[in-house]
Every structure is written in structure tokens, then in C-alpha cells.
Amino acid sequence: MLVVIRLTRSVLGMLGLVAVLGSTAPSSSAEEVFPGAAKRILFLGDSITHAGDYISLVETQLRLQGYDGKLINLGLPSETCSGLSEPEHPFPRPNVHSRIDAALKKTQPDLVVACYGMNDGIYYPFSEDRFAAYQKGVQQIIFKVKASGAKLVLMTPPAFDSLPLKQKGKLLPKGAEQYSWKEIYEDYDAVMASYAKWILQQNDDVELVIDLHSAVSSYVMSKRKTNPQFSMSPDGVHVNHEGHTVLADTVLKAWGVAEQIDPDESLKALIDRRQKIMHAAWLSHVGHDRPGMKPGLSMVEAQKIAADIEKQVAARVLRHQDASKAEYDDVYRCYFPASDAPGELELFVDFDLWLPPGVEQIRGVIVHQHGCGPGASNAGLTAVCDLHWRALAKKWDCALLGSSYEGRAGSNCRLWCDPRNGSGVRFSQALNRFAEQTGHDELSQVPWCLWGHSGGGFWASLMQTMHPERIVAIWLQSGTAFGYWTQGDVKAPDLKSNVYQVPVMACPGAKERTHERFHRAWDGLQAMKAAYRLSGAPFGIAPDPSTGHECGDSRYLAIPFFDSCLRLRLSDDIAAPLQLRSIDMSRSWFGNESGEVFSSDTYPGEKQNASWLPDASFAVSWSTFVLLGKLPDSSPPANPRSLAVREDGDSIVLTWQADADFESGLGGFRIERNGDTIGRLPEKSVSRYGRPLFQAMNYSGTPTQPLARMRFVDRKSPASKPSEYRVFSINSTGLESTPAVLKWKAFSVK
């Protein structure tokens, strides 16, 4: 759930960063605000800042809280602000003042965050001369940042932890001939404490000071009460990820973020990767004096990659906001990081799972697999929130599963869309994990319905060759691996006889047939259908006359297809509930290229050339779809339920629940007060892809973000008078339900 954060005016005034939270914040009071005016925040520092973990963690939290500015990391290993360097250092330590002018000019920050001191003491005992050099260096930073017009936040150096080095015998006592980063003065943290104390005294000269030293010391001391050997710094200097979390928490708390939002692991991974790419690019672009640094990408190339990552970041931020809405908070999630191990998936992946409310025994899993690219990956984030597909899952006591594979710029989609590269194993692992999370052990064993678009079709067609005994049916939406393995582009799978027992329906868009790029989807699906039908497989093809590579209105045929296949294949045998029934081809129907359909015993030609169709009802729908690209519906949807009303100031807020019409989905709602229509949801029905729906669809056939809510605000309600509210569901063909009705009288007269 999203958490509203409260910032004091004093902090906001110092930072000069004031903006009202977005629609996720329920109040507009003066204190419920968040930093937003600073669009560019520059971090300067040594190797601790260079590591960047705390910056990524801060950025992740700020994004979830509504801030969308840029955090620029220019931390440089070995750097000081004093210009000092110990004799044993392999090269003169770089001085920030050799690059700060260029940094300020090229990054154009509104706010600068500087953290120096750990290297400035050069690991020696305290010296007034070294301390004076440090003070002068910090004062120069203050002067130059102010002269640039930016605001400055100074952070103390973190604490030095002597314990790990003491155990290794790598500390030197006072009076040693010389010290270095390899042989550090045993009480060096006292030096850092002196530097930190002075930094805290600069509060009047800068916008804010942040005490990292005390935060790290206090955290370590607290941990050592139960674990005397606890440490976050293996070398005494550089904190690990836990230490960076302490640094980030301290920064966020100083900026007024009292309560943090628990982020998705994939969001953290994306922001961290973008930070690392842009960090290296900025270091090269600004320039520095440190030897041994690998050059970063050009700014143009790095910004292009960062823009692709930002699309995925923004989608996951929206998912966090959607998850706070009651309509969509019933989703289970699991995350798997990218792996470097041979044969394992090289990309991270999110899996989402939805279960029908109150379901006792799961009978199957309906899988919605997105296609290739960052946009398709983002689309996968909302797959299990699709109300129409939920209606299918609910009818058959099935789970609904979606995924979102990392859309890494420049990577080959086959890293995941070929399940032999690790995504097949991740899929199984996700089911096992969901079985544990939900308490439904059967999730790891029940059969699957696989829907795949583009690269998702590629994936599903190969999963068919790997696990035919687990698959109820497959819908290939403009994608298959068949043409690629027959032409030698990927390794050909072993096609065992049971592969040809899986029902498959292919759905290419007619506009793909002559498309320069997407004709391979058309050609591959046509060739697959021909080859599989020759082997007697229950395989059909339903070209959509209205679309190209987008999903369009194919859901109105895909859902009935799975409905028929689930009815035909799920077992009714209590003794063998997981055993799929075979398709009886003698009771199937068949269609020709003209869209004509026939029962098995009346087909006038060679059935091996025809499209297989599971039953008579689906055959009628198939024929209409391939000829017109749309399906009629004469039955109204079910009425909404759980209509509730509450006062919100001078307005009345209505909320309700509703299921999608099984045949035509959910087009929207009409709201009445005392017999008069006062509103519609959505206010304006528009759609780029297929029929307009309450949940607008994207290219990949999943709901767009942010997700639509079943909520209406009546701002003109005669609060002192009784009212009767009525809410009607409308399906995508325009048919209305009977209404949900609620009589309402305000508790108080305004």
C-alpha cells in the first residue's frame, strides 16, 4: 500500500523542493507534500558514493513517493576534497576541485549533495594541518555550489569500523612511521568523528547537513548487542548493501520521508542499472584525473538506454500505485533476479498470480505471456488485472498468471522467449513459489492454458514441445518459433507424438501477411498449422481481418477457445484430477479458408488441410471472427454489486464491484441519481486497439496503466435530500445490465 509522507515546512524550505503529491495522496494539506522542484540532484563523493547503492535506494523511494527528477551520481573512487594523498597510495588521489566546475556546468544541478572525509584524513591520526586542508576543501565546495545557483546538502563521512581489520591484524597504533588505506590507524574513526562534528556545524552555510557518521555508528552498535562480531564494512571503509541501506534511510529521513514504501525488487534492479550506466557516462563526460577507470558510454548512447529503462521504471511505479487500490490488491507476486550461472535466465523476471476469491481447489493455470521489448514487458505487469480474463479463470477455478521479463535494451529477446534458455525453469519455480505463498500446493501440478503474443507465442510453441502433457490448450497470437526452428535459426526441438495432442489456435493479423517485418509471424503460423494438421494435431488458425501485429479484439475468440478446451480436457475423474482428456477428433468441427464450418463427419474435403475447431459453438464464433473480425452478443452483462456510498466533504463517492461479461467484456458503467444519468465510466470511450473497454487495452492486449477504478464522485449531490443511486454495467457491444441500487441520505446537512 502507498504511504503518505509528511514533511515539515522547515525541511522543505531548506531544500527548496515543494510539490504536491499526485493522485495517490488523499489530502492536500500543507504538510502532505514532497520534494519535487529540484529536477536535477548531483551527488559528489568518494568511492562510497561511487558505489552508488545508497543513491539507487534513495531514487527508488523518491520515485515511489511521487518525485520524478534526475539523481546524478558523480562519485569517484579515491577522491578527496582536501587534495591530500598518503605516500603509499599508488597514485595521487584525485581532488574534486579539479572537476567540480565542469561538473556543475555540465550537469546544471538544482541541488548538490556532497560527502567527503573518509579519504581526506588519509588514514592517519588526527592532524590540525590535514583537518585544515579538509575544512578548506569543504568551504570551496560551499562557495562554488552557491556561485552556480544550486543549493547544497553536506553529509558527514560514515563511520570507520576497526573491527574487521583488527581481526586481520591490519591496523597500526599511534606513532607508526606511516599509514595508508592498506594499513590504517587503529583509532581512525575518532578522526572521522572530528570531521563529522565540524560538518554538522556548517548548518548555517548550507541548506542541510546529514549525519551519516552517527547513523552508521548507532546501527552497528545496536547490532553488536546481539552479535558482537557484526560489521557492514569488510575493509572498515566501504559499507556493504546493508550499510548503503542505512545511508539511504538516513538521507530519506533527513529529507522528511518518515515512512517508506516497500518497492518491487525489479524496480530497484532497474533503477540501479540505470544509475550505473549513467554514472559511468557522466564521469567520462565531465572528466576526472583518476587512472584505471573504464570509460562510460557516450551521453547520447547512455541516455538512449536510460530512456528505455525509464519506461519500465515508470510502469512499475504505476503498478505500486495500482496495488494500493482495493480492486487490484489481491495479486500474489514473486521476483527472480538475473543470473550469471550457465544455462540460467540472464534477465530478471516478475511473476504475478491472481486466484478467484474463495476458490478451494485450483484446476489449472491460465498463462498470459507478453512479447518482446520494454513496452511488451510493461504490458505484462497488468495481465492478471484484466477483468475479462479473470472471468474465464473464475468460471473454471483457475489461477491467472502473468509475467514481465526484463526488457533490457540491446539484449536478444530469445534470452527469455526460448524457454530452453532458463525461462522455462523460472516459470516452474514461480509456480512452486506461488504454491507456497497461497497454500495451494496443487499450483505446481495442475495443467496450463498458454496464451502468448509475438515472442510470447514463440515461448508457448516451444513450451508445447517440452511439456505437452501439462498443457490444456495454446493460443498463438502473432507468434511461433516454428518457422525459426525449421529454418535453422534456433535449435529444432524433439517433436514427440504427444506434442500433436495439444489443441492450438493461431491468430495472426491479416495485415501481417505482407508486412516487411511481421510477415514471419503470418508465414510461421500458417506453416505450423499445415505441418501439425498433417500429423493429425488439433490445430486451427483464425486470421484476424482487422489487425496487424497488435492483439486487437482477438480476446473475444481466445476466451471462448480456452473455455471450450477446458470443458473438453479437464478431468472429472476424482482418482486422476490432473489427467488431461484427449481430444476426440470425430466430435470436433473443421473450417476452411472461406470461413465455412462443418462437423467432422460432414466436412467435404481433406480435413488435414482444414482448421480444427473444438466444438459447434466455437465453430460459429470462429467463422464470424475470420470473416468480420468481431463477434456479436445479444445477452446483457450481470449487474454490479456491493454498491457503497460515502461522504467526502461536499461530494458523494460511489464505489462498487462488477465482473466482466463473459462474452463481451466490460465496456463501462452508467451512473444515475434519482433517475437522471449523472456520469459514465469511462467519461469518453476511446481505444487504439479493439473495442473501447472500461480497462483500455494496449498493443499487447492487457489493461493500460493506471488501472481503471470502479469509483465515481458525485460533486453536485443535493446532500440534504435523500437520493437513489443506480449503477449499470455495460458490455463492449453496448448492452446494459440491470442496475445496482442504493438509497442514500446524508448523515449531516452541509
Describe this structure in words.
This protein is α/β, with parallel strands linked by helices. The protein contains 20 helices and 27 strands. The strands form seven sheets. The chain has an eight-stranded mixed β-sheet with strand order 10-11-13-12-14-15-16-17, sandwiched between helices. The longest helix has 25 residues, at 299-323. The protein is elongated, with a radius of gyration of 31 Å.
Map the helices and strands:
Elements: H1 9-15, E1 19-20, E2 33-34, E3 40-45, H2 47-51, H3 53-64, E4 70-73, H4 100-107, E5 111-115, H5 128-148, E6 151-155, H6 163-168, E7 171-172, E8 184-185, H7 188-200, E9 208-210, H8 212-224, H9 241-254, H10 265-286, H11 299-323, E10 331-336, E11 349-354, E12 364-369, H12 374-379, H13 387-395, E13 398-405, H14 414-417, H15 423-438, E14 448-453, H16 455-466, E15 471-477, H17 482-486, E16 504-507, H18 519-534, E17 539-541, H19 555-569, E18 589-591, E19 597-599, E20 611-613, H20 616-628, E21 641-648, E22 651-657, E23 668-673, E24 676-681, E25 711-714, E26 723-730, E27 740-744
Parallel strand pairs: 3-4, 3-5, 5-6, 6-9, 7-8, 12-13, 12-14, 14-15, 15-16, 16-17
Antiparallel strand pairs: 1-2, 10-11, 11-13, 18-19, 18-20, 21-22, 22-25, 23-24, 23-26, 26-27
Helix pairs in contact: 3-9, 3-10, 4-5, 8-9, 10-11, 19-20
